[in-house]
Amino acid sequence: MHAELIAMAGYLNKYGLISWFSQTVVKVVGGLGLSWQMSFGILVLLYFYSHYFFASGTAHIGAMFTAFLSVATALGTPSY
Q1: Residue 62 near residue 4, CB atoms below 8 Å
Q2: First-to-last CA distance in the chain?
Q3: What are the tens digits of pLDDT across the range 55-80?
Q4: What are the transmembrane regions (predicted)?
Q5: How far out from the chain centre does Cα 35 lie?
Q6: pLDDT tens-digit profile of 7-24?
Q7: Mean pLDDT across the stretch 31-52?
Q8: CB-based contact 12:33 (threshold 8 Å)
Q9: Three-state SS across the chain?
């Protein structure tokens, strides 16, 4: 059952929805001019509430983790 959900999450990435979402979050949150700590807090909330768009936690992590990691890096969150 999880294979189908992961495949659907992969298609979200293939068709550009995940990259569009990432770019939009960078523009909106980055445009607020907040520190990286506040930006990271907003990202955590967005990541948490975005799981309601997915049928399982596995599909959510598979589709969104890399996107949110790249957004956090783009907003200045340290990698250490």
Answers
A1: no
A2: 36
A3: 677 777 777 888 888 889 988 999 87
A4: 28-49, 61-79
A5: 19
A6: 777 787 788 888 888 899
A7: 90
A8: no
A9: CHHHHHHHHHHHHHCCHHHHHHHHHHHHHHCCCCCHHHHHHHHHHHHHHHHHHCCCHHHHHHHHHHHHHHHHHHCCCCCC
